[in-house]
Amino acid sequence: MELKDRVAIVTGGATGIGRGIGEVLVRYRAAIVVADLDADTAERTASDFAAMGVPSMAVVADVTKPDSIEKSVADVLARFGHIDILINNAGVAGARGWHTSADSREEDWIAAFEVNVKGIANATNAVSPVMRTQRAGKIINIASIAGREGRPALPHYSASKAAVINYTQAVADELAPFNINVNAVCPGLLWTPMWDQVGHRYARFNPRYEGLPSRQVFDTMIQDVIPLKREQTPEDIGNLIAFLVSEDARNITGQAINVDGGAFLR
Ligand SMILES: NC(=O)c1ccc[n+]([C@@H]2O[C@H](COP(=O)([O-])OP(=O)(O)OC[C@H]3O[C@@H](n4cnc5c(N)ncnc54)[C@H](O)[C@@H]3O)[C@@H](O)[C@H]2O)c1
Question: Atom of ligand 1 at shortest distance to CA of 65?
Fold first, then answer.
């Protein structure tokens, strides 16, 4: 696989899964744009990538704001002149992490849908005109296994990730005539800042996890729900994405693919 000279925007690319995806694409020599709310971490990540020998830049972008992401796209075009790959990775667990449906507040539903769903649509709408003109492009939307089947304590998050899978299908059909592939990736359980912040809350919904800190909840869940009995890593997600954005995957579009150690067999 060869991604040399391809320009890839990774939203939420400063840390966690987004950073891991960037690291794998760097190995294939793609140029990486780290687009994130967190300016300092995005700058550090972009300079780490540049130190690995690929062109890289950071842009401060809030995917919930169309103006913000449109400005970022203009900055990327000014530097590189083309955009070949968009990884819609930015996502949140909700405004306050995990809650049952009855405990979810308006702000949880708004945060999950504003970032996880509308954020993907905003970035896609900002980048797809460029790809349509190029008659080439690859878009990857990060969903979740929670979008395959609703999980307790994650109603707003699960519903938003199911919407990502559905949105992926709709846009794949719309953009296919322009030679643009659109696919979703559904990660399983990955130890990232997101899990660190919200994992301990799971104990509120399942006595098995009572009193455990986030990392122990995470480790126990790996044994409980992952047939391969190991956690997934950002590199695992990046490895699938490197294939999906390469020409080897030119006939794959509109699909959602799990990277979850066998947790969901559909
Ligand atoms: N960690 C997991 O187990 C897991 C599992 C399945 C799916 N996912 C999904 O993978 C993606 C990345 O998750 P993660 O665990 O790395 O999360 P994370 O919280 O560790 O990192 C998310 C990144 O997105 C950025 N971000 C948040 N809101 C943004 C916005 N409005 N605009 C731009 N950037 C924004 C944050 O600054 C951060 O750098 C998310 O879509 C998440 O839902 C994660």
Answer: 31
Q: Classify residue 46: in a domain, yes or no.
A: yes
- For a substitution probing ligand 1, which of 69, 144, 194 has the most ligand atoms within 8 Å of its CB? 194
Query: What is the tally of structural domains in the chain?
Result: 1
Whether the CB of 234 sits within 6 Å of ligand 1: no
Do the beta carbons of residue 260 and residue 187 sit within 8 Å? Answer: yes
Beta strands in 129-232 (DSSP E): 137-142, 180-187
Token representation of residue 11: 């939203």
Domain that holds residue 66: 7-190+233-259
Nearest to 244 by CA among 34, 25, 52: 25
Distance in angstroms (rounded) separating the CA atoms of residues 171 and 181: 9
In tens, the pLDDT along 28-59 reads 999 999 999 999 999 999 999 999 999 999 99
- Residue 46's Cβ-count burial label (10 Å; 0-12, 13-18, 19+) is buried
Question: Which of the residues 157, 167, 202, 209 is marked catalytic?
Answer: 157
d(CA 251, CA 264) in angstroms, rounded, equals 24
The Å distance, Cα 182 to ligand 1 centre, comes to 19
157 is catalytic: yes
- Domain assignment present for residue 1? The answer is no
| CB distance 38 to ligand 1 below 6 Å | yes
Per residue in 105-127, pLDDT (tens digit) is: 889 899 999 999 999 999 999 99
Can you tell me which atom of ligand 1 is nearest the CA of 13? 39
